[in-house]
Amino acid sequence: MKLNWPQQRLSNRQLIAIPLALMIFLGTIAIAAIAFGAFPMSRDFKGGSLIRMRGENLPASTIELAVGNFLGGSADADLIENGLDIRTDNALDDAGKLLVKEMLSEQFGISEDAVTIETMGPTITSIYSEQARNAMIGAFVAMGIIIFIAFRRPISIGSILLAVGLDMLGVFGCMALFGVELSLASIAGLLMLIGYAVDTNILLTTRVLKRVGGEPREQVVDAMRTGLMMSASTLIPLSALNLLTTSPQLYQLTAVLIFGIIIDIFNTWFLNAAIISRYAERQRRKEYHVSV
Predict the structure, then answer these.
(1) How many helices (H) and strands (E) would you count in the chain?
(2) 160 with 198: CB under 8 angstroms?
(3) Which domains does the chain have, with CATH numbers?
(4) What are the distances in angstroms from CA 153 to CA 125, 280, 284?
(5) Which residues, at least 6 apart from 80, have a Cβ–Cβ distance to it below 8 Å?
(6) Rounded to an integer, what distance in angstroms lies between the CA atom of residue 203 and that of residue 224?
(7) Number of other CB atoms surrounding residue 80 within 10 Å
(8) Which segments of 85-153 does DSSP mark as H helices, in order?
(9) Which residues fall within 8 angstroms of residue 116, CB to CB, at 6 or more apart?
(10) Would residue 90 be called left, alpha or beta, if left means φ above 0 and alpha means ψ between -120 and 50 degrees?
(11) Of 31, 36, 167, 281, whose CB neighbour count within 10 A is largest?
(12) Minimal CA–CA distance to 32: which of 186, 172, 180, 189?
């Protein structure tokens, strides 16, 4: 039985409507989360508190859980010589610090004098955030120049940059929806995703615009088979690592890549495929009329 691909039986408008509807949904979530200050941010961006405890045989995992439950946020414990350090997402004021010391004293018998609490600032300051934003913009400009040199068609630049931009928007929507924090690890995932998305879109554009012979829709399906194989072979190990890891950084990195690869399937093989195949069909009709 021959598989009937969506690109063979749906119109260009229908192909474009599917990813656009998904991006409107995810984009609305992302924008609303940012506007109302509900977008999940890690300690890299918002800072927190460092709770230092000094003493022998402190139950690290139990204290970590108790502090996290007491403050209503995540807490990470590090065993050090003669004590324990716990980093939390909460920036505590004087009253909050006193309450934490009282809780540790009552539940674990840790003297308040053996506990010091310091406020941690964000690892990524506003200056570094601006530099990261400028780097992302520079990356998009550089990609546009390289794509133009490779294909020499404005439609190629616009469609590829549109697909990559929508990938980023969709990932931010998924992060807000599933509570994946923006951190140094997730930023690394976003940068890796840009390269992956450009690769899949270049695969599509090369097959449709530069390969001789065959109909544009057939060339899209041929490229999609290769692209889906790439996506599946990448998603399987990433999903396994995401499910098995206990490291927050690895979880954030793999989650961003998983979101991005799934979203890129829609933006590349539905949205961009419809744009490129429509352009290729028009170009072939023009060439036919000129030859006649």
Answers:
(1) 11, 4
(2) yes
(3) 6-40+125-291 (1.20.1640.10), 48-120 (3.30.70.260)
(4) 39, 11, 15
(5) none
(6) 9
(7) 11
(8) 94-108, 126-151
(9) 51, 52
(10) beta
(11) 167
(12) 172
Residue with tokens 């989650």, as numbered in its chain: 255
Mutual angle of helices 126-151 and 184-209, in 10-degree steps: 10
Residue in this structure with the two tokens 């399987």, named with its chain if needed: 236
Q: Apex CA 199: angle with CA 198 and CA 202, to 5°?
A: 80
Q: pLDDT tens track of the chain, all 292 residues? A: 456 778 778 888 899 999 999 999 999 999 999 999 889 888 777 778 888 888 777 788 888 888 888 888 778 888 887 888 888 877 788 888 899 888 988 888 888 888 888 887 676 555 566 776 777 777 778 877 887 887 777 888 888 889 999 999 999 999 999 999 988 889 889 888 988 998 999 999 988 888 776 788 889 988 999 999 999 999 999 999 999 988 888 999 999 999 999 999 999 999 999 999 888 888 776 654 445 4
Structure tokens at 49: 């508190």
Radius of gyration from C-alpha coordinates of the chain: 25
